[in-house]
Design a protein that fits this description.
This protein is mainly alpha-helical. It has helices at residues 2-14, 16-40, 45-55, 60-87, 92-113, 116-132, 142-166, 172-195, 201-225, 233-265, 269-285, 292-315, 321-352, 371-395, 400-413, 420-445, 452-469, 476-489, 500-523, 533-547, 555-574, 580-607, 613-630, 634-655, 660-686, 688-692. The chain has 26 helices and no strands.
């Protein structure tokens, strides 16, 4: 019985109990900041409390990261407000235009970054609005408002950081390691299923889409763990290298998988009969722990399989030249996959066993937002501020300033969300739920509080409800709405004044502001949101074109990052069940990823080659492929296919007399040429590029 009770208690504490621990920490940070704000006599104690509510996140690393960027954004926003008011102290219309331009610029920056750095842009935008709007009638008070805002936000940041980092801290670095372990195991299982033909092509495509989201999530987690004290810089480089190695091996495996799928579709039986036993042996070997010894055995077994298959192929006089090319390409991809898998496994074991490996930093994973979405986000936020400001002037309602701030805040906050209307709708639901509850708490409980303790008891239920709901993904937006609404309205000021009419007006203005943000996302450029399939498809096409002409330094890494990030955006916007149109974009993106890798490798070979027929023919391939990607017409496609055939002939002509290292590079070039050729044939037959363009 005692063992059962301990087991149940441990299970509860590790699930539901963690949520209540989080709520307790959030409330401790909130009311500690409020008490200090009262003791220091700050003008708006609710700002310090609201800051702790906003910074209440599951792990200490996430809290510290968001706190850092919140303070940075607040400083920049205060400086911008001081400058704008100083430039236009007696011209409210011009001041509003200046603030709108600043908010648009910051919102565009937030949409461009889409991580906690984007939060700095959001804060810089709406902090300037929060200071400049109240200063319209009293521009001389703008400096006091800025200093007060920074002090109150700073106090909230200190309280949140101390509580979440000291009391029952949850280290984000542990969550990152769990993500690494899950990624490694999931990828090996995926490879086994594909090699054993237990996954359909559609299921494999969806797996690639989810892997793209995993890559972005790992980088986000690494960035949060960076702020924790036990996180070393070398660990950051290892995580960068792990993410980079994963993208490399994933792309190689996708190319191998596509080749196998094409061979089955074209019914090239002899080649399949030679290659599929190698797939089965690899799948079997990957079920064991891929330590150094197992990887060496895998390489040796693959080499033996290749030698035996090549001997059988040479003995078969009926094998045609195209089938010989298919076999050589399959063998090259299998060998490349094992090499890439070895690098990936070595990095994983170094992380899992906490061995600090000296690795060259391949560069951080960087998000890439389509420019049209960045511009649309800025235009939407600026237009929202100007429209609400015009309504304020026309209605002459003093509380409309709250609506301006709420509309601006949520237009900026939701700009980097893949489903902004859903996010704002959830927050609006939280506001609507909190309206009657806040009124009852204010006038039935808060009015009876004659000291700090009773006041905490009066405000606690509603704030705790919002904090609890924010711990679950389904109701997180509702919880955020309840928490923000309560922190803004429910907390008393230093000199409390109970006014039913003013309280209801404040409630309505705050809720109207969120509703305006929701309407703006629905009406103003509704298709220009993060992860929209049309924008993702066009951006993927531009990235493939960029692979043909951008500087080669770290080009493959940048190309991988940007394509995976675009697929991650598509995954977030599509949800758990992507539509057929979204799946079409996924197929196109993976094909362009294969094309881009092959083109970059050809360009690297060109850069290292001496002038000659082979080099010239490869340059023609890159040039004609760029023409096709720039304008995907059948004529450009036919020209690109013809140049690929000529290049293959020219490379094979110099292959026999090449030195060993040069021979390996030329063999890789033949594999890349074959991959590009078959990919172009697929696209020209389906017409996908016309849709993408």
């Amino acid at each position: 019985m005692a063992a059962w009770l301990r087991s149940e208690a441990a299970g509860w504490f590790n699930s539901e109990g963690q949520r209540w621990v989080f709520v307790a920490k959030a409330m401790l940070a909130a009311f500690s900041a409020l008490w200090l704000a009262f003791r220091l006599g700050l003008d708006s104690p609710s700002t310090a409390l609201a800051t702790t509510v906003i910074l209440a996140l599951p792990s200490s690393g996430m809290v510290l990261e968001k706190a850092f960027y919140r303070f940075l954004g607040t400083i920049v926003g205060c400086a911008a407000a001081l400058l704008l008011v100083a430039l236009f102290p007696q011209s409210p219309p011009v001041l509003f235009i200046g603030v709108a331009l600043w908010v648009a610029l910051c919102t565009g920056g937030a949409a461009m970054h889409r991580n906690q750095q984007s939060y700095s842009f959001v804060l810089a935008g709406y902090t300037a609005c929060m200071i400049a709007v109240p200063a319209i009638d009293a521009p001389a008070q703008v400096f006091t408002l800025a200093v007060t805002r920074m002090t109150e936000v700073g106090l909230g940041i200190i309280c949140a950081a101390v509580v979440h980092d000291v009391i029952f801290p949850r280290r984000h670095s542990r969550a990152v390691m769990r993500t690494v372990q899950t990624r490694y195991a999931g990828f090996l299982a995926f490879c086994q299923q594909v090699l054993e033909r237990r996954l359909s092509p559609a299921e494999a495509e969806l797996s690639h889409l989810k892997f793209a989201a995993d890559i972005a999530a790992l980088e986000s987690g690494r960035a949060a763990a960076f702020f924790e004290a036990d996180h070393a810089r070398s660990h950051t480089r290892q995580l960068h290298a792990f993410n980079a190695a994963f993208m490399t091996v994933l792309t190689t495996f996708y190319t191998l998988h596509r080749l196998s799928h094409r061979l089955r579709a074209n019914d090239t039986g002899p080649v399949l009969a030679l290659v599929e036993p190698m797939h089965a042996h690899l799948a079997q070997a990957m079920k064991l722990d891929l330590d150094a010894g197992q990887l060496a055995r895998m390489r040796a077994e693959l080499s033996a399989d290749i030698a035996a298959a090549r001997a059988r192929l040479e003995a078969d006089a009926a094998i045609a030249r195209p089938q010989q090319i298919d076999f050589d390409t399959a063998v090259e991809l299998l060998e490349r996959f094992v090499r890439d898998l070895e690098d990936f496994a070595a990095l994983y074991h170094g992380l899992a066993r906490e061995k600090r490996r000296q690795v060259s930093d391949p560069g951080a994973y960087t998000p890439k937002t389509p420019p049209a979405i960045v511009v649309a986000s800025g235009v939407r936020a600026g237009a929202t501020l100007l429209i609400t400001a015009a309504a304020w002037y026309w209605l002459a309602w003093p509380y409309a300033a709250n609506a301006i701030l709420m509309a601006t805040i949520f237009c900026a906050l939701a700009s980097s969300s893949p489903r902004p209307t859903a996010l704002v709708q959830q927050v609006l639901t939280g506001f609507l739920i909190a309206m009657p509850l806040a009124f009852l708490s204010e006038f039935l409980l808060m009015t009876r509080a004659d000291d700090f303790g009773p006041m905490v008891l009066a405000a606690l239920p509603l704030l705790a409800l919002g904090s609890y709901l924010s711990t679950g993904p389904k109701w997180a937006g509702v919880g955020i709405g309840i928490g923000m609404f309560s922190a803004t309205l429910l907390v008393p000021a230093n000199r409390m004044h109970y006014d039913v009419e003013a309280f209801i007006s404040s409630e309505l203005s705050l809720t109207i502001g969120v509703a305006v943000a929701y309407v703006m996302f629905k009406v103003v450029l509704p298709e220009h949101t993060m992860g929209h399939k049309g924008h993702v498809a066009a951006a993927l096409w531009r990235e493939a074109l960029n692979a043909c002409g951008a500087p080669l330094y770290r080009l493959k890494r940048r190309f991988d990052n940007r394509v995976r990030d675009l697929l991650s955006q598509l995954n977030a916007a599509s949800g758990p069940a992507p539509s057929e149109a979204a799946r079409s974009v996924v197929r196109q993106g993976l094909t362009l990823l294969e094309l881009g890798h092959a083109v970059i490798e050809l360009r690297q070979l060109i850069a290292a080659s001496q002038p000659g027929p082979a080099r010239h023919s490869l340059q023609q391939v890159v040039r004609h492929l760029a023409d096709y990607l720039r304008a995907p017409t059948p004529a450009h496609g036919a020209t690109a296919l013809e140049s690929l055939l000529h290049a293959g002939t020219a490379v094979r002509a110099v292959l026999a007399d090449a030195a060993p290292e040069r021979r390996l590079a030329l063999q890789t070039a033949l594999t890349d040429l074959h991959s590009i050729y078959t990919s172009l044939l697929d696209q020209l037959s389906t017409g996908e590029p016309h849709h993408a363009a």
